[in-house]
């Protein structure tokens, strides 16, 4: 019986320059931030990042890891815009493929189903096809004859997702209100890593939640990473909510290029244990 | 009721957007749209479905009545069409094209905004309205920099599949209520809020907008005022979006 447990740094060591990586979660919600932080520590570059974007995209842009972002939005939810992503776009440093949110989901779904495309109405008449001229339409062969947008499959080299619980074999569970699209990210990817707040015996999964909360079965997962607070500073309800004070500190630091290096020094230059110690210290400081 | 604020007029104007909608998902973005939708449900549209902003559908008394995670929203609720969204807009043009993506050239924008989000899908699948808290020339432009929400001219150019369910309904601003019922679906004034003049609207809009047929937006009833002030928004969040 395969024990798929690994570390976040070993997982990230499998990345190569130029790969297409999918990052689960949504905005500033249940993002695999421990994996993102490990990518920041690694030498990998020229990534195509496929994400319902939040601070994952911002941090990777700030570290110069990104060549292209495939996205429908980049937002921090309680803060509308990510300053790093804004700067990367406004300086012309990155390329983008900008999709409607629904098109983005269909691109993953097509890859998950091994289809070349899926049809949709979303995107017709908007600037999405103008900005991605490789997009094509497809005509219904039935009496309606409707001409719809053909969203091409978006296969991924590697997917990173963060869930609340997993077992060592890769069965994984979300315990919050929304699964987001994490199963589609895994099904669209050649190599799949799930980090979890806790890695538990398989029997504990159904003791902790309904069977419908088991989002990933082990055939969709290659590596399991125990990463407590691995989504911080995004929400991983019910284990914890978004750390709004820390997110604000991130935004304030990101807005000011003079201040950003000290944020990197303090929070992003050590390993995950150092990160956890430092965010505890930060929480004590803001409470004081 | 001379003490009625502009924000309260706007909340009632947004509530009126949902009149006749019946049993569909109302998706208001922003403070005044949320208050408007909840006011409509508390008064003349009791069957509206409203989300808690996350994954639950929540009744007027706070009872969770359904599950609506993001994937369900995109896979079925938007394409199925029983929804009326009220989105914000960084730019709107005379044909109802809307931009929330970026300002300037898309390759290297002067200002990156949210991205197109769900605007392309919303506008070709179900009724869409817009809320603009500060009606001005930077918002109401000759032509939007990025078409996120699809207007009438672009829906027509894209063909029958884009037009089939396209329905840009209204724009509510701090100055009035507008629709796209002018010649060739251009924006026109339906009602101006009490005290607002046609000249004021013309001054704040980059393209001509015919307000000759516009009435005066209605005042809240006593019951509506009570609901807005005492039940739905006792902290006065509405005044932060629309200063008096």
Automatic annotation (TrEMBL), chain A:
Alphabetized UniProt keyword annotations: Transferase
Keyword Endoplasmic reticulum on entry: no
Molecular function terms, GO-annotated: CoA-transferase activity
Pfam family membership, one: CoA_trans
InterPro entries given in the database record: CoA_trans_fam_I, NagB/RpiA_transferase-like
Protein name: Acyl CoA:acetate/3-ketoacid CoA transferase alpha subunit
TrEMBL record, chain B:
InterPro entries (UniProt xref): CoA_trans_fam_I, NagB/RpiA_transferase-like
Signal peptide: none
GO MF entries: CoA-transferase activity
UniProt key word Transferase: yes
Keywords annotated in UniProt: Transferase
Family: Belongs to the 3-oxoacid CoA-transferase subunit B family.
Matches recorded under PANTHER family: ACETATE COA-TRANSFERASE YDIF, CHOLESTEROL RING-CLEAVING HYDROLASE IPDB SUBUNIT
Protein name: Acyl CoA:acetate/3-ketoacid CoA transferase beta subunit
Source organism of the structure: Prauserella isguenensis
Record lineage: Bacteria, Bacillati, Actinomycetota, Actinomycetes, Pseudonocardiales
